[in-house]
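cron nightly-structures :: item 1 of 1
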Amino acid sequence: MKTSMFLFILLLVSSIFTSPLVTNVRFLDTLTVEDMKTMHELGFDPTAFNLTYWNWLLEHGFDPNNWMKYDVDVYWIEYFTHTPYVGEQVKVSGYLALPKTTLEMPLAMILLGTMQSLIYSAEYYPAIWASAGMIAFTPHFIGQQKSHRKVVESYYIDQGYQNIGVDIYNAVLEYLDQSNIPYKDGLLFYGISEGGFAIAAMAKKFQELQINVTMVAEVAGPLNFGFFLRMFVNDVKPKNTEMTFLSLKCFTSYASYVPNTTYPFTSLYQTENKQQKINYNHNIVRPELRDLTVDAYLDEIHQFDKMWAIEPIYNELPPEGPKQFWEFYNPELKYAILTMQNDHPFLAYGNTQNMEDWKPEMPFNIYHSVNDDKVPYGFSVLSYRAFLAKGSTSVKLVTFTGVNHIHTQPPARKAVTDEFFARLAA
């Protein structure tokens, strides 16, 4: 009897740990190389320059004719992961791009920066990497796409990125194995901006789990969250909707997920399936502006998921109301960040979100332009020095000139793919 019960428990535990991650995979589109020559939407919007994506690359020093080789099938993939700290199981989504070839291909995790996930056609973004000869996949961050309006977005929270990184990697392997799709050893990590922070967090976790990563390419990302906060408070542009949008994403993530804190002020908003409580630290939003701004922010951000949705909030304020985004927040918070008061609860949390606090053992390249107009180049210099101080001998800083934040991608892609394939061939 005891033996039977033991076997039953063993089978039950085994079924839990071997249960499938993938819940749904559906075909979206086949993109030919010729298709990609005329596209405008590949994870961001080059139409602002009145260019096709192909010509946009050419104008910035990258000839895609030497890179895009394969037609690509693009799939939508859904799988389970867990929210950071809270640990709630949530169904999330991503894109999987398979080059149309019978050859075995390496894998590539490709991450976007802060994006408006309901607007841009991000499914095309991994396709251009797959066209170079990789099985490329791009997870949506927690709170985007499939989990949009079901949970709060996990923004600059390491556990959120690490959870989806490990789980989409395993989900992709599960799907490839079940579908008898061949692949070979080799895993590239690539992330730009927010995706750079996320890819560093994932690399740290993969190293802890002893999962081999061939090469990490971190492009123009702020790896030290504390520096990022200080960049916020030094902003002086009037009605800066971009900074307002980014700061609210940080604060809502912090208030919703970070443990061991108390929040005397709460707000409720209706998600797709349930009413979810959002907690706010009283040291964040100015008390006299809470009723006017917090619910409006949540409604605009979670309904439209675009930073210019903030503009109507500014327009609704009285003439004497806030004109700069920091005027929405308690002056005590701004002062605490500027003076680096690490005992302040938000800064204490921010100090844990530092992707410079580990020693990379896999090849870890940092790419940045001295002319970056969004994330200061100095951030990457400090990150590079921090890794060296930790004793890492596998980190490298690659510097570009003459290109801004978004235009760092073409030269970075060329450098990344050249080195990645050279490493696989070695």
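cron nightly-structures :: done
The domain at 20-223+355-425 is CATH 3.40.50.1820 (Rossmann fold).
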